[in-house]
Write a structure and sequence with these properties.
444 residues; alpha+beta; Alpha-Beta Plaits; 5-stranded antiparallel sheet; 4-stranded antiparallel sheet; 15 helices; 11 strands; extended
Length: 444
């Protein structure tokens, strides 16, 4: 078996895989013998079915399966050995007479691949902000801690500082047929949720107001505040809903004391307000700097995508889109899709090039470490900062049982490593700014 390449240009080629019958004949015959030994066919004892009968029924599909397997393996091996970084997947060309009994078969594949180019990160320069938190950000963060562990205070009526727990249910019409097991939505709102708050602020405990499906369709903000996604609103079974007040209360922020320190950071890890402010400032500075580093990296990548010439295998990609997407029927449609996706494809090629050229690789320890950090971040949202390492790792391992999570976390780890490379090699224009000034930069 051999693979030969005929380049159309520097980013596309036709690969021809030639396979001899001798390459697969023995494996096909071995499988047929196994079928004959185990086949159960009326009129024959097990293991006594004539091989000729088994061949008539099974030889063609077994041969095709083995040929396809060997061709695929040969193609992948050729791509790996020649370090071809494919764009899209190989597109097989039609074969007029695919006769598995021939002494030799050939199959052609059209392929597109990344061009040969290099990226000198040092020639790219972007602002690298040193972001420092001030009293405003530190005090706001501490106030958020106080709110997180605030005491609920009963109220006689809904006020501007109230938090209101709502139950939102679909109203089933009297003449509606079928089962109607629609679980109600439960949300808690405040005056910040202006549209929903205006709807219920005059209600008493257990009071309710009716709204229509049309209200939610027309006011998407209200729908979101009442816990509905756009898709859920579109698929509501009934035209009327009831919004009912289940509870309302005010909040007394937790005092800044040892009890609060222990709830946030674990027992006796913080013992004074000054220590708390120092710890919070350190955490905020680290968090802000992470954002500033990401901003720098994104600016560098934007410049690279804008300035680097990356030739795409456009003719191939049109063929690949038509082959891989049954909804694309014509070359014109495929070209329209490609035109819309060109920048994204170019970005992926550049990202892959940077990862490859800087020898960025992943291992399980990297992915597990990132999963553990995600667990810590999620726990921190709920004010949990002191769970043991073994418990955190247990949650992380459970997270990595989901293949989609593995894919996403692996991508995050790769980008984090690429970020470090860009931070090291690209040229920084260092600038000190406050957090507010940095937010203004992000708005630009």
């Amino acid at each position: 078996m051999k693979v030969t390449a005929h380049n159309h240009d520097e980013v596309s080629a036709r690969l021809t895989v030639t396979i001899d019958r001798v390459d697969y004949k023995d494996k096909v015959e071995k499988q047929l013998l196994n079928y004959a030994k185990n086949a159960t066919i009326p009129g024959f004892r097990k293991g006594k079915v004539p091989l000729s009968m088994v061949k008539r029924q099974y030889e063609a599909p077994i041969a095709f399966e083995e040929i396809n397997k060997q061709i695929s393996e040969a193609l992948n091996q050729f791509v790996d050995e020649n370090k071809m970084r494919l764009v899209g997947q190989p597109v097989p060309q039609p074969v007029d007479d695919f006769d598995y009994k021939k002494e030799q078969l050939s199959v052609d594949f059209e392929v597109g691949f990344e061009p040969s180019f290099s990226i000198d990160l040092a020639k790219y320069e972007a602002p690298h902000f040193k972001v420092e938190s001030g009293d405003k950000e530190v005090n706001q963060s501490i106030e958020n801690m106080q709110k997180r562990f605030a005491e609920q205070v009963p109220q006689e009526k809904i006020a501007d500082d109230s938090f209101v727990a709502l139950e939102v249910s679909q109203i089933v019409e009297a003449d509606a047929e079928g089962e109607h097991n629609h679980h109600p939505k439960h949300v808690t709102i405040s005056a910040e949720n202006k549209e929903a708050f205006q709807l219920v602020k005059e209600l008493a405990m257990d009071g309710s107001v009716k709204i229509s499906k049309e209200d939610l369709v027309n006011t998407e903000v209200l729908a979101t505040q009442l816990g509905f996604t756009k898709a859920e609103v579109e698929h509501l079974h009934h035209n009327e809903l009831e919004v009912k007040v289940k509870d309302f209360y005010g909040l007394n922020n937790h005092e800044i004391n040892q009890e609060l320190f222990d709830k946030v950071y674990g027992k006796d890890n913080i013992t004074s307000e000054d220590e708390l402010k120092t710890r919070v400032k350190t955490e905020l500075d680290e968090y802000f700097q992470q954002n500033a580093d990401v901003h720098f990296v994104n600016k560098v990548l934007e410049q690279i995508v804008e300035k680097e010439e990356v030739k795409l295998p456009e003719t191939f990609l049109v063929k690949w889109l038509m082959f891989s997407n049954q909804n694309i029927k014509t070359e014109v449609q495929a070209q329209e899709v490609l035109d819309a996706e060109k920048n994204a494809i170019k970005y992926q090629i550049i990202e892959g090039k940077l990862l490859n050229d800087n020898d960025i690789k992943l291992d399980y320890a990297d992915v597990l470490g990132q999963a553990e950090q995600l667990v810590k971040n999620q726990l921190a949202i709920y004010g949990i900062h002191h769970l043991g390492d073994e418990e955190i790792q247990k949650y992380a391992v459970e997270m990595l049982k989901d293949q989609e999570q593995v894919r996403q976390i692996s991508s995050e780890v790769a980008m984090a490593k690429l970020k470090d490379v860009i931070l090291e090699k690209a040229t920084k224009k260092e600038t000190k700014v406050s957090h507010d000034e940095f937010l203004e930069e992000l708005k630009k």
